[in-house]
Amino acid sequence: MIYLLAAFLPPLGLLFNGQPLSAVFNFMLLVVCLVLGLIFHPLLVVPSLHALIAVRMEREKRMHREVVEAIREYGPPQGYRR
Hints:
The mean pLDDT is about 95. The chain contains 4 helices and no strands. It has one domain. It is elongated. About 75% of the residues lie in helices and about 0% in strands. Helix 2 packs antiparallel against helix 3. By secondary structure, the chain is mainly α.
């Protein structure tokens, strides 16, 4: 659901994902791309791409943090050698 929001309303999707600084940057990017997108149409997708990539990276960071916390709490998986 957050990916749809990030694709169609990029700043709002970033805000709901807990990334307020990225949302501000994306809003500024959105304004610039809307103005310049009148001349060069592919620029209209840049804010959405930025939001989708930022949401994905934040999700991966959260998943990584959860795995690291689980390893710290329960130890490494069986069969893991150092």
